[in-house]
Prior knowledge:
Blueprint lengths: L12 H17 L4 H16 L3 E8 L2 E8 L6 E3 L3 H9 L3 E3 L17 E9 L2 E10 L7 H19 L1
Antiparallel strand pairs: 1-2, 1-6, 2-3, 4-5, 5-6
Helix pairs in contact: 1-2, 1-4
Amino acid sequence: MAESIYLPKNASKTEKYKAILPQIEALISSETDLYANLANVSAVLKEAFNFFWVGFYLVKEEELVLGPFQGPLACTRITFGKGVCGTAWKEEKTQLVPDVEAFPGHIACSSASKSEIVIPGIIDGKVWCVLDVDSDQLDDFDQNDKIFLEKLMNILSKQGKS
């Protein structure tokens, strides 16, 4: 079991993603417990990028329920279609939000959150969870985050399906 990850010093965001994705894949490949894997993925992302908040919400009936995360206290339940997370679930697509205050129906779990990206995890055509990443800076996420975090969710969904 890996107990640390390698992060290249002075690397760009893209270089960090390229370094950690194979490490995450290796880390979760030998562990069958979903919560353990989601907890470790949250920790790796927090350590690699120092995101304000990073974690998972899992679909349970008609709500997203808080799962493993790193950061300050969070909303525990989110309704289908509500806020950025609920919208990602409903639309089954990534939500890249440069200013959360401008997002209709934004749920303010923390007033310190300024921008957000939410990526749905999909297995057999159904959303099973969302990865929620918040920043305390405006416009902190870009297409590179979208591309690499979607790749991460594909890795997690493949592991979750097996």
